[in-house]
């Protein structure tokens, strides 16, 4: 079972207590009626669906019931970090580099074999 | 002469009890319960009115004079009064913005006690119930099998399971099976 760190409970809790609530940081227009069809389509339907790191909203529905945001790797299912709702999108450069190659797989194909700049320890790897 | 209708209390699973291997399940007597929501500005006044300080730390509870306040979320508490008090009435005089809703009859409480109490609950609850992670007084909303519950550790080998009345049959059955497995 996955353990997910709830930023409000400030501890890791079993995944059964959580529910995914879609992609995070999607800004809703203050004047939705004035949106063009193209912009509304982007806001309403189009999601990034990356192979790699994605920012998501999660809810600790069977716990403190709070919504929060998480950066998760869609390949490894690893949560890089979680943070409270309303906090800015964190810089993941360092975390993604430490997370191993999977976190970099959403690069364009011609860059897929580029190693991240930060050195990762190779000792003890299978 | 008009006939007076009298409502009689008919608690779900009233008085049920079952013993397993090193664990005893007992359906507890009815209690007054209140769902309380408030922002930090009103917390001090509410604590004073209730006679118990609202805990502000996750997974904790506070108790005084038969009244227990369980932290459920950053602005949400469950108040359980087993001394015949009326927590909603006590909050009525508090000026600060808050929501106090009587949910006394929404819940059924089951005491799970004995050396296998934690193991019995863990049959359907994925939380770490070791004394380090879930000490006496710890409280949390979580899951049991396929339903939600509120769990309070009342002693090293004693828990109070609070579930919705309509789920109580399932919860009691689930815990009974788990107790037999011990
Ligand atoms: Zn939480």
UniProtKB/TrEMBL annotation, chain A:
Q: Which InterPro entries match?
A: SoxD, SoxD_sf
Basic and acidic residues: which segments have biased composition? 112-126
- What GO annotations for molecular function exist for this entry? sarcosine oxidase activity
Q: Where is this region: Disordered?
A: 90-126
Output the Pfam families linked to this UniProt entry: SoxD (PF04267)
The record ties this protein, via Gene3D superfamilies, to: Folate-binding superfamily (3.30.2270.10)
What name is this protein filed under?
Sarcosine oxidase subunit delta
Its source organism is Aminobacter anthyllidis
UniProtKB/TrEMBL annotation, chain B:
Matches recorded under InterPro entries: SoxG (IPR007375), SoxG_het (IPR006280), TrmE/GcvT-like (IPR027266)
Biological-process GO terms, alphabetical = sarcosine catabolic process
Coiled-coil ranges from the UniProt annotation: none
Q: Cite a single Pfam family from the UniProt record.
A: SoxG
Q: One GO molecular function term? A: sarcosine oxidase activity
Note the NCBIfam families from the entry.
soxG (TIGR01375)
Output this protein's name.
Sarcosine oxidase subunit gamma
Query: What is the organism of origin for this protein?
Result: Aminobacter anthyllidis
């Amino acid at each position: 079972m996955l353990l997910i760190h709830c930023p409000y409970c400030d501890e890791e809790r079993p995944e059964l207590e959580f529910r995914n609530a879609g992609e995070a940081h999607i800004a809703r227009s203050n004047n939705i009626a004035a949106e063009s069809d193209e912009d509304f389509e982007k806001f309403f339907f189009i999601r990034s669906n990356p192979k790699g790191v994605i920012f998501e909203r999660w809810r600790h529905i069977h716990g403190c019931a709070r919504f929060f945001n998480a950066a998760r790797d869609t390949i490894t299912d690893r949560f890089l970090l979680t943070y409270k709702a309303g906090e800015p999108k964190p810089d993941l450069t360092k975390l993604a580099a430490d997370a191993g190659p999977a976190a970099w797989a959403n690069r364009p194909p011609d860059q897929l074999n580029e190693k991240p700049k930060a050195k990762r320890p190779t000792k003890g790897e299978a | 002469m008009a006939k007076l209708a009298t409502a009689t209390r008919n608690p779900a699973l009233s008085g049920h009890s079952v013993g397993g291997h090193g664990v005893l399940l007992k359906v507890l007597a009815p209690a007054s319960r209140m769902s309380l929501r408030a922002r930090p500005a009103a917390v001090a006044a509410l604590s004073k009115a209730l006679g118990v300080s609202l805990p502000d730390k996750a997974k904790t509870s506070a108790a005084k004079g038969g009244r227990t306040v369980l932290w459920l979320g950053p602005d949400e508490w469950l108040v359980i009064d087993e001394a015949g008090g009326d927590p909603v009435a006590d909050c009525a005089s508090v000026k600060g913005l808050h929501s106090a809703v009587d949910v006394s009859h929404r819940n059924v409480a089951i005491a799970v006690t004995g050396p296998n109490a934690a193991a019995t609950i863990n049959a359907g609850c994925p939380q770490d119930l070791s004394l380090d992670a879930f000490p006496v007084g710890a409280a949390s909303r979580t899951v049991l099998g396929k339903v939600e519950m509120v769990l309070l550790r009342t002693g090293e080998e004693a828990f109070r399971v609070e579930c919705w009345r309509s789920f109580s049959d399932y919860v009691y059955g689930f815990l009974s099976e788990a107790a037999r497995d011990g």
